[in-house]
């Protein structure tokens, strides 16, 4: 039954640079007489890359690489030593037999047209919300799902995110997308490897998700490049992503975890500088306006220009923090690189002194406090952006509460065709009809090479579709399909159900001509929701209906039909009026016979 | 005059009504009656019971009498009978020693139980045996020496009682043996079971068969340091792990944390013991988080940062190990660590001695005698005892709970766990009383505790997640309300019809 | 129980005169020997941006207990909505409880255990009674024991004996009382201090029946609790009166403070809070004037100096050496019976099963009309049989 898949698709080129356990550091010896050995540096590396983007934006990319100690897989060791690798994460990976783990937290929108390709070719940028996928070693699919459940629950406690909401109705087993690039090691060859993925698109990302990130690093945010990370600034950016990638690298029987943590943020420079002066956006006062001198301008008239292209700022203006020394834990010093054109002047500021290098890359060491200074006369002159091979946008179409449609538009700006994989995981209450898939701008038969379709099972499994598409050069195609919306059970509606239900972003993995990965935006699906405030009305309404239905039936069967005159007669004789009359007459009789009422005329 | 005219009209009407009433055929009347009766029968005999059955909450029948009986008689059936093998050296032979000593021992225990302060809460006894001992048995060797004295071997269960020839003459030997056995070898064990000592020891954690030990090196600075923890654990700590393996299994990890500072309010003041609770910042140090579902004990070796070193202690700086009840231990060093220094095994040895001593206290082991095995034996039987009590407590709490919340469901899994718990208890008693296999008894008593905890903390027994009463009414009201009203009104109608019939009888 | 004016005066006087005595006495007399650790459960139950102040309330208490020493691992923080990184928030990553914006409650290091849709009545009851499935992470459980003092703080919109969760469901005073009884049965607390800031808050604690619970609420039956002030820039009210004054009191406290709970209760007046704060002490067997605030708000992780035996390892190692010299040939093998061999797997074989890759040409296109015709004919047959 198994169908042979084609050979390895190297989709995700994970660019790690792992530092092997090096020899003893060459710092000066300590004077303590008992010590005749030096502490070895950790397999740890941190780098910071700063790239100005068009329109006065700045991309800041942090990269932290950590490796754990080697463990011998065939021996069951009873004690573990944690040096650089965080102690809180390793037991979770071990107890759930996770060989690879990828976590993505993100918010914001990346403007592909202005800013070009996502950093790292989009491999480390997930969609909006939280995404997690992992390779788990287990005997079969049920066991792998159990371990997956245990994994996401433990991660929800560690990362303060609602990952525990991931259950079988949100989990997919990707077939062609998300395939790991390297070979993975099985620790016990009776088991199999399972790739499992889930995403929560409506999950907010805030300081409580950043805090564990920073806690994983040996410096804990108090030294090195991690001292720049401040939730207030990272989350005020146009776009930000936090990612963790953990792989198991083996050398024979010795295996260790290699972790790469990346934080990227795009900051609007003039806005950040304004926010530092005054966080509240108030209109600029008259004398600070930048008026267009070519147009009438006086005390009463001003045509304000946009933000100036002359920029003069330091990194601490944007991040409100400085670099507190270098990383003492790694062999190589922490590296800060600015990817600027010749138009920009970049200096490292230490103790009031400015240092520049021809490559604009700086090594940060020691205990000093560092800052980076940037100056340019024309901020539109930046390094050329890498062309994006494909632009994708997805939207929900249709109207009404019973059905809708989804339309994904792919725009290929290149001069050659683009082959890509489009992965979608849709919730079960969005019942997709695969036969309604239509591709405009070309025939479906030419553009869609293959489809993997795993239909939904109510409350158990989402719809899982993976299209392989070829978009011709310089063209735009639209892929659309329709779906039915379903009613959920009363208890399944979340609080504020009228807000809608979020649908995960679709994942596009470009295979040819370049390897690139991007996500569409998430969608908000409005399902027909009941009015939760009217249970009593519902009860009364259904009581009435039941009463009418059953009452009528009962009366028909049980009561005897007579004509109206006969009925009137019967009622006159024995109905309630007659009974009251009898009662009245009885009372009047009693009154007459009572001595109190007798009129004694005296 | 009018009355007379009306009378016939009224009488006429009454006659006509009677006619109308009787104009119905017998058949149609009986059909109607049968329909009513059948609807009522359906309602009461089938509908109502069916509704009750379908909406009832499943509550498994728990063995309440048995559990209440267990709770009332705490461990009355557990017998802890120890055996001590006596070896008489020097080729001597005392024919009536066995009997006379046993009588004295029994009497001593009896006296203990009579005294309200010293009363034992369990059936405890020790028997002397004079045959060949096994490798792990308690051995008492009688040897002639220069005076009278006792020597307890610190590494095995061997005790040597020295006596002189005059002791034989004075017939003191039974007394000496009794004293040795009860007040030296088994002293701690007996102390555990005395009624006056039943107040819970706050320092130790509750027994758990698996305990995680986390060794941490904390430094206030950010300079790279290291310690040869793996080697130290292999060399020093492994014997402890092996010695304890029948009582508790340890999983161990170690880590180094930087930038962990103390909350020193005033660095010139000397740090007292009381200050420790405020200057240690567990929150900032972030060392307590882990995901194990068994207890963790933390052992922290702390070096202050350069800026506050050397620390000013009020106490002796060699007595720098502090115990945090149920949490772990902290060794506070005076001086800071030089950058890049590595603590080797030689330096770690005294640290580990301190940690081991604290570990023993944290696990609840007694301080005497010196022999670790004897202390382990004592805590082992006491843990068996307390496990059974805790398990029984859980089960009786479960019973109390099920009685006080009648709307809460009690799923079958709970019953299963309760039965498993009781079975495990039975096995414990069997292993302890008959087989004297204390390791097995400990395992079974632990199983009992686990099952009873599982039974109590069952996921399903949350009143909210099941059908609350108000919702039941709300959901069934539209169905049952109108039906009931229509039916009952119909019944009234029938009754009034019958009255009408009687009235209309010719 | 409301605190009467004369008793306030008396207690204040007593406090002033006795405070030096109290400071000395605290070590032995009034510290509860059974209390070894502290936990805090802080719950906000409201959703939507305009309930910013409820999140600020909870975060104020979070800040207080954290500052006084309770570690994150012993605090359960439940925030029902995200206000710090809400797109309406002018100050991303910050939550303020005062329009002077002096203190940022969200800070840089915060651990939120339950957020968003996880804050439900069911989860709250499960948290208190510790009835979870096996995968529930430890950091989200209330791992208290009989030596724990728990501070429980709830805020949101409430009414007579109920509290509204997420604008969708309610928890009643009976539910909480039953949960506390379950905790008492299982010896999951030493003492509980229950504080609630909602409208008609005092009705929520009227149904408790377990011992050692001290409760205080912000307003009486048929009284509302009010917000303190709004921040014009943020656009919503930023704190409630009751919690504002709690915070004002708590900011004066340090870890070694000797202020008592009675001082806190005396600090509540109608003029400040604009409602009658209530305290229930009948289930509590200690006198609040002798109970330190840090007994609930701080963390008592007091160290004990213990007698150290520093020769245990020596003895064991010594014994080991003796044994080693005698047994030379016993080599323990560490290989286990289960064979675990390390193997490299080609990742293309992952998830290979069930991979039905279909060519779109092969998918049959259904005819909608056929479906309708079948249904119509079935319907016709059905109707015919009925009407017959």
Automatic annotation (TrEMBL), chain A:
GO terms for cellular component: GPI-anchor transamidase complex
Protein name: GPI transamidase component
TM region(s), chain numbering: 536-558
GO biological process: attachment of GPI anchor to protein
InterPro entries associated with the record: PIG-T (IPR007245)
Pfam name, any one: Gpi16
Signal peptide per UniProt: 1-20
From TrEMBL, chain B:
Cleaved signal peptide residues: none
Any Pfam family the entry gives: PIG-S
Compartment list: Endoplasmic reticulum membrane
UniProt entry tagged with the keyword Aminoacyl-tRNA synthetase: no
Transmembrane segments annotated in the record for this chain: 34-52, 473-495
GO BP terms: attachment of GPI anchor to protein; GPI anchor biosynthetic process
Topological relation to the membrane, as annotated: Multi-pass membrane protein
Pathway field: Glycolipid biosynthesis; glycosylphosphatidylinositol-anchor biosynthesis
InterPro entries per the UniProt record, alphabetical: PtdIno-glycan_biosynth_class_S (IPR019540)
Keyword entries, A-Z: Endoplasmic reticulum, Glycoprotein, GPI-anchor biosynthesis, Membrane, Transmembrane, Transmembrane helix
Any one GO CC term of the record: GPI-anchor transamidase complex
PANTHER family listed in its UniProt record: GPI TRANSAMIDASE COMPONENT PIG-S
Family in the record: Belongs to the PIGS family.
Name of protein: GPI transamidase component
Automatic annotation (TrEMBL), chain C:
This enzyme's EC code(s): 3.-.-.-
Keyword Signal carried by entry: yes
Residues of the signal peptide: 1-23
Pathway linked to the protein: Glycolipid biosynthesis; glycosylphosphatidylinositol-anchor biosynthesis
Pfam families in the record: Peptidase_C13
InterPro entries per UniProt: GPI_transamidase (IPR028361), Peptidase_C13 (IPR001096)
Residues annotated as catalytic: 157, 199 (nucleophile)
GO cellular component: GPI-anchor transamidase complex
GO molecular function: GPI-anchor transamidase activity
One Gene Ontology biological process: attachment of GPI anchor to protein
Keyword entries, A-Z: GPI-anchor biosynthesis, Hydrolase, Signal
Family of this protein: Belongs to the peptidase C13 family.
PANTHER family reported for this sequence: GPI-ANCHOR TRANSAMIDASE
Full protein name: GPI-anchor transamidase
Organism: Wickerhamomyces ciferrii (strain ATCC 14091 / BCRC 22168 / CBS 111 / JCM 3599 / NBRC 0793 / NRRL Y-1031 F-60-10)
